[in-house]
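User: Structure with pyridoxal-5'-phosphate, tokens only please.
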Amino acid sequence: MNKWKKLSQQEIRQRIFSALSENVDYYNENILGVPASHLDDKVFYQNAPFLEDAPFLSTLIHNPNHIGCHTLGSSESFFKGTQQIETEVIRICAEDILKGEGEFDGYVASGGTEANLQAVWTYRNYYQQEKGAGLDEIALITSADAHYSAAKASDVLQISFYKVPVNQEDRSISQEGVRATISSARHEGKKYFIVLANMMTTMFGSVDDIHCYTDVLIDLSVDFKLHVDGAYGGFFYPFARQENDINFSNPHVNSVTLDAHKMLQAPYGTGIFLIRKGWMHYANTEEASYVEGQDFTLIGSRSGANAIAIWMILMTYGPHGWFEKTLVLSHRTTWLCEQLEERKIDYFRYPDANIVTMKASYLNPKLCKKYGLVPDNHEQADWFKIVVMDHVTVEKLEAFLADYDTMS
Ligand SMILES: Cc1ncc(COP(=O)(O)O)c(C=O)c1O
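Assistant:
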């Protein structure tokens, strides 16, 4: 615990350049066998003076490939310097942010979709390998508000998908809903359950009460594995609501998805998959024999610059700085909600969340278009959301409200 400490810009720079110096140097070493190189030097600057102060851009130019998983066994030794930084990112996320004790594996995935697929793939293989389960005996369960990547996972991995209904007022799931969903799945021959619980949903920012799942599954003596989808909420909710048990302090939570390219404002390609030690091997592809350490991930080759970006953001803020950032966004969201209440606009906000979802019937479609509000359904919208990100300032919200007043 407490690996996460704020660093100065100079310390960050030193650490990244020292990591890059431990990676392969394509210019000065005789590296002949890898189908990889630095970025093309006719197209991308290699020696521009500003690069000395730009550790992320320098990493892009060095172009490390972080193929595989670096928290277990061996990995491609060509890129060991920056892989070490990725390992630190995984530990900070699992231990400092998600309160895990013990050991964890994980990697920087292409995004939340891949990390969710990686989880479902791991548990599907576990049930097949350890329990002799057939595909038609394994079910994926989420709430009706879960991200569509769950539907993708069910399709790609060929297991049935069941949705637990949510209360339309507060977007919550209930024990009765979980019980009914499990019963109908069991009725259809499902014996093994993969649960994806939400730590802030895409449209409503709501968080599932994890006990609704675990109490019922335990009561019914059902075999289950539980993954948390924190793609949206993983870098927000643990700070906004510090006392919570949708993290690794809960023994039922076996793996978690986070996305640094959402709230953390990292470049795209920075999903994070985290799992307790001892599970990653269910997703091993033994045929990856030319990769040193083999490949336990869905993606294959991936840029090491993504891990560097996450590490730099985490180190620039430190835990207190990041907490303050989420607090500001949360306060701004409260301000917006007060303005909506004054105007009697019907909206949903999960406590402390930075998403406000308004009933479409209160809003002029032209206003929604002008301010880039996102609907739940582009064909027929019931809801539109505002996501209070860094760039969504009070001034911009004021402009939206002023236009609302004029148009209504
Ligand atoms: C809750 C949730 N899970 C998963 C995803 C998928 O993430 P990505 O688009 O990075 O694949 C999203 C994206 O919005 C999300 O909100």
